[in-house]
Write a structure and sequence with these properties.
Elements (H helix, E strand, L loop, with lengths): L3 H41 L18 H5 L11 H15 L7 H4 L1 H19 L22 E3 L1 H4 L6 H14 L9 E3 L7 H8 L2 H9 L6 H10 L21 H26 L4 H17 L3 H6 L1 H5 L7 E3 L2 E3 L7 H6 L2
Antiparallel strand pairs: 1-2, 3-4
Length: 341
């Protein structure tokens, strides 16, 4: 039986640990802003070699081309782009060897992964960030440092139409109606933290889509968009099913079986929804799926794992147009082809 005194001591010890974690988090959030400010100072004195961000063959290695396409529109930047900036620009700027950095400095690398999009955001909006004035200096140790995005940052009347729309969508995404047009204060992390703002800043189309809400996006499309997201989505970030070796334990093999079972159920449900939709676009989508499946049934991987099909000379139904086989290649548009005959 547990002694009551021991229980009381345990409660106090646990609460002390919780406080330690909370205090460490507050300090960590503040230090992340210190790192951010240092990197911007390095940018100001040309210690960040931005040209390294680009591939060797790139013709335009200017700062503008980092954030804008040749059409003048904002680029969509995701985790892979932030990773390139981290490895090619940030790590070398600290006089660190990029090779094996992630292996030998795993936790430092994780911290830099968080800071990378924020630094890119800071560089893009450098004129709106005062490194001395735009950061709070709380006297309470329980309150983390916050960064101020001033009213001028959100103001867009002096900008071109596309930029006005972009600023409006970004503000609508993070700022409540009553605070629009005012300074906005954010901690480093959190739902409305600078890290989240920076990621959204580089995904203008996604921000616009979120703001449109249910007008153009149903609950189904939102759910699918979430899992298909290339940055955080479960499906979007998965590159392969479970890799199971022949000698793997039974429990491990069950993982692949479960993935296949759930995938099959989801795919069939979606195909049924599309097939039952009385709309030309739905049926055109069904045809695109069919083309894709036919192509995969002719792949080397399929024949490697299903040798009996080739051994027994099994042929899957190919597409015929006017009694002639229609060759399926990547990017082939059957509907367009048929329409032009």
């Amino acid at each position: 039986m547990v002694n009551k005194k021991d229980t009381s001591n345990l409660a106090e010890q646990t609460w002390a640990l919780v406080q330690d974690v909370a205090n460490s988090e507050v300090k960590s959030l503040s230090k992340m802003f210190n790192i951010f400010r240092n990197f911007l100072k390095m940018f100001d004195n040309n210690s960040l070699n931005i040209s390294n961000y680009f591939d060797d063959k790139a013709n335009d290695k200017s700062l503008k081309s980092m954030f804008y396409g040749i059409d003048g529109k904002r680029k969509t930047l995701i985790a892979k782009d932030f990773g390139v900036f981290l490895k090619r620009v940030l790590i070398p700027s600290m006089n660190q060897n990029v090779k094996d950095f992630e292996i030998h400095n795993a936790y430092e690398y994780k911290a830099l992964e968080l800071i990378s999009p924020v630094v890119m955001f800071g560089i893009s909006e450098r004129k709106f960030i005062d490194l001395d004035k735009n950061f709070t200096k709380p006297t309470n140790p329980k309150i983390p440092v916050e960064m101020e995005l001033t009213a001028n940052f959100w103001k867009s009347t002096h900008l071109e139409e596309n930029e006005q729309i972009f600023r409006h969508n970004l503000e609508k995404r993070f700022v409540i109606e009553s605070n629009k047009g005012k300074s906005f204060y954010a901690t480093f992390r959190g739902e409305n933290g600078i890290y989240e703002i920076a990621k959204s800043y580089f995904m203008p189309k996604q921000v616009q889509s979120i703001n449109k809400g249910n007008v153009e996006n149903s609950s189904l499309s939102k759910a699918l968009e979430k899992i298909n997201d290339k940055t955080n989505g479960t499906l979007g970030t998965t590159t392969a099913l479970a890799n199971i070796t022949p000698d793997a334990p039974k429990e491990v093999k069950a993982r692949l079986v479960n993935e296949l079972s759930q995938s099959k159920e989801t795919i069939i449900s979606l195909i049924d929804l599309i097939a039952n939709s009385d709309n030309p676009k739905s049926q055109a989508t069904l045809l695109e799926i069919y083309q894709h499946i036919l192509g995969t049934l002719q792949s080397k991987n399929f024949h490697k794992n299903m040798p009996q099909m080739k051994a027994k000379n099994v042929h899957f139904n190919s597409i015929m147009v006017k009694n002639k086989p229609f060759e399926i290649n990547e990017g082939t548009d059957l509907i367009k082809y048929v329409s032009n005959i």
